[in-house]
Specification:
single chain, about 550 residues, alpha/beta, Rossmann fold, 9-stranded mixed sheet, 6-stranded parallel sheet, 19 helices, globular, binds pyridoxal-5'-phosphate
Length: about 550
């Protein structure tokens, strides 16, 4: 590694950070990635600090009501202040013409690089204190206000704190209004807009995430202007940055010198998806990685390193999960029967219910308990279709109480228990919509075998029948659901089940291969090395 004291200082912007399950300032994979980056940066000595938001209520605490349907609760995060250091810095932003103050907190721990959190929950903001209340809740105006706070507020916080920054990394399109502030700074020093834009691009890198079209935010210019997101720039200039309507991802791609997708396949998909955008930065592919100390159980890794039997340790981890499930749901799973895990955001394209689409086929296995499945995952609070999906799974858990389980309020704790305690990690998105899928990496490194569509990271790692299984063969034509369903049943019933029940030593060998083939390549350490090599070091 190149001497770290010569490494570029990076300001990493993200709406959410998944650090632990008590700090409810994250929603899902995007935040977990950001948290893992700050942790790995600390462990391997990279000078990256985070800019984020202090969510008073965080993301939904999503529970299941007596009719089996999810509902949302927003308990306040008051105690969160106990973790934080006051920087004594407050900065101003303007939202809808109104002056709003943001207080800057510092989260400093001994296992993670510094994270600065912006907070609008101040008496002096009166009824305008809502900006940092709920993550990804409500409507478009609130969302834009939050993005003004993260982007413009983030840059002002960095200046007020007098932090040294070589590179600004916008993780996802939420932070792109930071670009307007950097451009303004350059124009105040005498550059014209074009020169200032160019100088800004020379300092920014951008990570794009979702390959689902409507997951990429767009806003009408009139609304952006009235909200204050123009930040003194003109419509013509803002159109130059983000097109018309203004696309956050488009703006990220155009404000950056280099962009990246989060897996090799996602890089290909993103390049196709944004091919038509003129003036965008090149989109590289840097596959996500996970922070191993957070996600890999030390007992299983130690057994792997020592060449010891993995199954006894795995059975122990599995029984810990089964006890955890019993405490939460009263369901009694069986330690000696195949246990599948499926935990994802309840978005329809992830097809959580795929495995139930031929009930006559799976029913006998569920009756007998030869197949047991734990599900978890939240629907977006405003997504009724996603909530229908959860309700359908909950219904299944009532039909098969000791072989199908739904764990409510999916969080880092549940993810941690599941990705080390199940036997198989199932993933079946409609291809190619899964950008990366880091939960599969967590599982793989714990010796939990992936059974997945060739989407996200899995095409890079999968050696079918050796370290896990693929199904669907990367198919993307008509009737993808039916094609993938047939393939899932074929692999599950003809390969996974016989290996599990009749070839335990083969299973154990596959667990070993799973850890061996993923432990280095899908670590956050590797990801950071690549960020520096392929992006940060290219910034002058
Ligand atoms: C790891 C993790 C994710 C991201 O995993 P995916 O495979 O992208 O779903 C999301 N939520 C939680 C709580 C996680 O721990």
């Amino acid at each position: 590694m190149i001497q770290n004291n010569k490494q570029k200082n990076v300001a990493y912007f993200c709406m959410e950070y998944g650090i632990n399950s008590n700090l409810r300032i994250y929603a899902g994979g995007l935040g977990i990635l950001a948290g893992d980056i700050l942790k790995a940066a600390h462990e391997y000595d990279y000078p990256i600090f985070g800019i984020g938001m202090l969510w008073l209520e965080g993301y939904t605490k999503q529970l299941i009501d007596e009719n089996g349907r999810p509902y949302d609760k927003y308990p306040r995060n008051e105690y969160i202040y106990d973790y934080l250091e006051d920087t004594d810095v407050k900065i101003n932003i303007k939202v809808k013409g109104k002056d709003i103050k943001l207080k800057v907190w510092k989260l400093k721990t001994d296992y993670m690089n510094t994270l600065y959190l912006l907070d609008s929950n101040l008496d002096e903001n009166g009824k305008y204190d809502w900006i940092t209340k709920r993550l990804y809740a409500w409507g478009e105006e609130e969302r834009i206000a939050q993005e003004i706070a993260l982007g413009i507020g983030g840059i002002r916080a960095i200046r007020a704190l007098d932090l040294d920054v070589d590179v600004y990394h916008f993780n996802e399109g939420h932070a792109v209004f930071a670009g307007t502030e950097i451009i303004n700074e350059k124009m105040n020093k005498g550059l014209d807009f074009e020169q200032a834009l160019k100088a800004t691009q020379n300092k920014v890198v951008f990570t794009t995430h979702t390959p689902v079209k409507k997951g990429n935010e767009e806003h009408e210019h009139g609304l952006l202007k009235s909200m204050g997101a123009y930040n003194g720039l003109t419509k013509k200039q803002m159109k130059k940055i983000g097109n018309d309507p203004f696309g956050n991802t488009v703006a990220g791609l155009k404000l950056a010198k280099i962009s990246n997708g989060v897996a090799q396949l996602h890089g290909v998909t993103a390049r196709q998806m944004w091919e038509h955008i003129e003036g965008k930065s090149p989109i590289k592919a840097i596959t996500n990685g996970i922070h191993r100390k957070t996600w890999v159980d030390s007992r299983i890794y130690k057994a792997f390193e020592n060449g010891d039997d993995l199954l006894p340790i795995h059975q122990q981890l599995k029984s810990e999960l089964i006890n955890y499930v019993k405490d939460k749901t009263n369901s009694q799973l069986d330690n000696d029967k195949l246990l599948i895990g499926f935990a994802r955001r309840a978005a329809p394209y992830k097809r959580a219910n795929l495995i139930f689409r031929k009930m006559d086929l799976v029913d006998p296995y569920l009756q007998e308990g030869k197949i047991q499945i734990i599900f978890s995952g939240k629907a977006h609070p405003l997504d009724d279709k996603g909530k229908d999906l959860v309700a359908e799974i909950v219904k299944m858990s009532k039909k098969y109480p000791n072989s199908v389980v739904f764990l409510e309020d999916y969080d880092m704790e549940i993810a941690k228990m599941m990705t080390r305690g199940v036997d198989v990690w199932l993933n079946n998105p409609r291809r190619p919509k899964e950008a990366s899928g880091t939960s599969g990496m967590k599982s793989a490194m714990n010796g939990v075998l992936n059974l997945s569509i060739l989407d996200g990271w899995w095409p890079e790692a999968c050696q079918h029948g050796m370290n896990g299984w693929q199904f669907g063969d990367g198919y993307m034509g008509d009737n993808q659901d039916k094609h993938d369903l047939d393939s899932l049943y074929r692999v599950l019933l003809k390969e996974v089940l016989p290996t599990y029940y009749d070839h335990k030593s083969k299973w154990e060998e596959m667990m070993n291969n799973s850890i061996e083939s993923t432990y280095e390549d899908f670590s956050a350490r590797k990801m950071l090395e690549n960020y520096y090599l392929k992006m940060y070091r290219k910034i002058k």
